[in-house]
């Protein structure tokens, strides 16, 4: 095969050392259902070259992934004397001949720990190197990977040729000069523009222009260049009214307050404003766009966010299902499943510059909600292996081992092993990096991307352990083991066990149950604090929990990832002790005011949901009443702002009940997940929620009185 020839040509000078790899393989192998003794038994398997990965095809037999490359494997890495490949990770290959190959190679750069992943059904490639790979070219490889100087290095190569559009939208001199000239108030505007000409022509014209001005192009000439070769934002998208939208879905009848019911009807109308469909040109000429083509239309968050976003879409889908729009949900689900088949994971959002990172893994939960609504078991059967593949991405690429009390626990973290500024926030990342020594800048950019992967971009959660919690340059996202990420994965593993049992595959059902049990035990040992009655992020550097308040500390309740029912009521005491119940407009993202948008005073819809629906699982009437009062507070904040401004917002300032602020951009209107959570809460509490009375202060000593008042009203 030509591909094998390329592999052998490029990497034939040295061999893997399986003995050195075996201890690195053990945690991932355990998660994939194979122990180290089993994996070491595979003697000689073809490897996926990090020079060019195969276009692997999906196979149902993919589930048994295991292998340690042998000393006699035909495809090997060139081990340079200048670079000790001590951190190289194992190649995984299915034991079935027709199945796929997945590779993960970790480069030993202590400032970045770059890792490439070739996922099934993907064409993930790193830059073409001189062949054979020699010691003098090794530094070039590391530099290219760290700087993201090749589109293939971030997993974009869908063809055998380099994607020139990534040299415009993801990295390179053109991107650097335009973004640092600050032609637009928001860096995202430029990278969302489509091209008016072929990317090679654009790059050639830019190269000529740069040469004329000695690579320091004046702002006016840059503006003229952009106007000539780029189109305004949004040209690749069409407005779309969902075909399954209809008037008066049933849940509206559950809302007793007439004003809230009218408001809910208006939120239901907003789905039509947020619907988008990608033009066919994006499929026929993808090189001219940063937008990733999706076959099915979708609902966007709104404002500057005109493409899909991963974790936002879960709360959007919940709202759509209440609006009886199951076909729209199925289309959005299929888009995500197609992305997993293509790239091995779901990117942060629907742009090629987001492909380096994912977002909180909620795909399995999305499927669960869709199946619960439609009972479409055939759709589940057709896609169960793709759900498993997405979880494998987190297992292979985001797993960390925590040694505590003589035991080793496997948990997950957010981790994006690529440097370079985020294209959509390029100038901010460059300016922030310029405050640090040059040797620390790549690591900073990687940590910023990990923070974006968390969905909490940015928060004091990721600054813990830093000398100054107000400095974003101190970010250490990958050094934290987050409660919410592990709760989401714990929930996904439980759902996968249920799915497989439903489909009659008891072996896989038992395997995922075991994985869930292992994670539950790890979370109990590493993240839970009995005295405080909550879970807390764990700092890998200092070996301590972060005892600051964040709503994510209670995410295991929402995810059902606990074994003792009493923890729900302990969580209520934790909220009392943290004085969180004294805020009348909503639950704050933290109690630290750092100026970051995922800190005080902002409150976000998904975080309200994590706490409210988590507490609602309690059997205690008192705890359930607090959940209702928190829902009442949030609904009234949303309703009051909507009444004033006729708009829904992505976040709210819970200190004054107005739209939120802070962070890297102005507060956005729309807004997908805010609307979804409002509909969820009105569906759940519609018979009790009101639009007019004063917001509730849930001061701890008033909790019992609030409950007794509720009982009294029930008799009247």
Summary, kept brief:
With 716 residues, the protein is mainly alpha-helical. Helix content is 43%, strand content 7%. Strand 15 (651-653) and strand 16 (658-659) form a beta hairpin.
Number of strands: 16
How large, in whole angstroms, is the Cα Rg?
25 Å
Distance between the termini: 81 Å
**Main beta-sheet annotation:** 3 strands, antiparallel
- Regions with pLDDT < 50 over 5+ consecutive residues? 1-162, 707-711
Widest sheet, order of strands: 1-2-3
CA-based shape: globular
What share of residues are in beta strands? 5-15%
Structural class: mainly alpha
Helix content: 40-55%
Number of helices: 25
The overall pLDDT average reads: 80
Give your account of this protein's structure:
With 716 residues, the protein is mainly alpha-helical. The chain contains 25 helices and 16 strands. The strands form six sheets. The protein has a three-stranded antiparallel sheet with strand order 1-2-3, with no helix packed on it. It starts with a helix and ends with a helix. Residues 1-162 and 707-711 have low confidence and may be disordered.
